[in-house]
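sry for the spam today, last one i promise. struct tokens for design, 358 residues
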């Protein structure tokens, strides 16, 4: 099959399975780590303990009302030093760059069907690094003259593009710039938005930012977007470690907006924190706003999902599920002999093509 040809001709990622406990510190990371019932129960006990004392209502409300302000402060302090560019992006979502020649993700049989039932300044609460071996990445050169020609006479920015991508919660561009670099098609347009005006300005100030291929704007995606593109126009929307930062009561509104702007056949590519991830288990009492939703020391927030919650949100809006899996990783610090269990949810949802009757 084509998939077999692809995976046999490229480096593979996702197949390093720990079979002997004594080997755990031989590598920095292990894939598809199975959790026993005892480990699940222990994690639930840690979560229950942290949830036993909820954050004061006025503090929780402040986190909601000042969400943009807290993220502005975060990016002002860390700027682009905090988030590394997502080198794993094309391993997990190769559709984003057709010319990608790097590692291909290999999933274990049955992984798609699996169910997932800090110290406050610890950066692992926010980062989502995925350890991969060094891969070869090739990109053809960009024909800037062709880009300029395509932009002429457009009814809106990107109307002549044949691949329109929106990155929600772009931060400092850790997804945007790898895509612009790897996908050299002159007919690619990347839109990106963030609640933080500081983050959006950092994207615009980046040396790789091109006003002919990219448009960045400040947007609260739980409200009206006022985007530079019309309804039913986007080929792909990426939602990568951003939905978790939004109040659960407002998540469905975000999904509704995504569906509005996706074209029939368009894809949502989702990756975010899963239930019982290391970051969740590190939260202490008084930091929990509501079940599985926490505030960090700097006021930014984080939710930890199950597969079922993600499925319900997208399928209820009429999207078709193409992928929904739990990515369980064991990362180790070989020097300190520490084990860190990471849990992420990864999913893809497709907007159905219009029927002939429609």
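last one done:
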């Amino acid at each position: 099959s084509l998939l077999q040809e692809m995976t046999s001709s490229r480096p593979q990622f996702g197949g390093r399975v720990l079979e002997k406990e004594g080997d755990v510190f031989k590598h920095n990371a292990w894939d598809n780590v199975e959790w026993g019932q005892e480990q699940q129960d222990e994690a639930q006990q840690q979560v229950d303990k942290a949830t036993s004392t909820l954050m004061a209502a006025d503090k929780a409300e402040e986190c909601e009302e000042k969400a943009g302000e807290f993220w502005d402060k975060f990016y002002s302090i860390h700027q682009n030093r905090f988030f590394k560019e997502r080198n794993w992006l094309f391993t997990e979502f190769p559709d984003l760059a057709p010319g990608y020649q790097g590692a291909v993700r290999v999933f274990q049989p049955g992984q798609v069907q699996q169910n997932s039932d800090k110290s406050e300044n610890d950066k692992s609460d926010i980062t989502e690094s995925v350890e991969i071996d060094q891969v070869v990445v090739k990109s053809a050169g960009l024909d800037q003259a062709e880009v300029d020609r395509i932009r002429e006479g457009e009814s809106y920015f990107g109307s002549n593009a044949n691949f329109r991508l929106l990155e929600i919660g772009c931060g400092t561009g850790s997804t945007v710039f790898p895509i612009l670099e790897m996908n050299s098609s002159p007919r690619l347009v990347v839109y990106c938005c963030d609640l933080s005006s500081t983050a959006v300005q950092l994207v615009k100030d980046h040396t790789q930012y091109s006003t002919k291929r990219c448009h960045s704007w400040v947007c609260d995606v739980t409200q009206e977007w006022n985007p530079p593109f019309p309804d039913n126009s986007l080929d792909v929307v990426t939602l990568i470690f951003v939905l978790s930062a939004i109040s659960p009561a407002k998540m469905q509104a975000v999904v509704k907006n995504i569906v509005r702007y996706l074209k029939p056949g368009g894809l949502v590519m989702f990756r975010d924190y899963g239930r019982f991830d290391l970051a969740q288990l590190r939260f202490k009492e008084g930091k929990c706003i509501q079940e599985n939703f926490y505030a960090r020391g700097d006021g930014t927030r984080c939710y930890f999902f199950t597969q079922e919650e993600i499925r319900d949100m997208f399928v209820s809006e009429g999207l078709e599920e193409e992928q929904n899996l739990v990515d369980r990783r064991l990362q180790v610090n070989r020097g300190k002999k520490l084990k860190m269990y990471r849990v992420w949810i990864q999913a893809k949802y497709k907007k159905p093509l219009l029927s002939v009757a429609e």
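Residues 1-13, 109-138 have pLDDT under 50 and may be disordered. ok im logging off now
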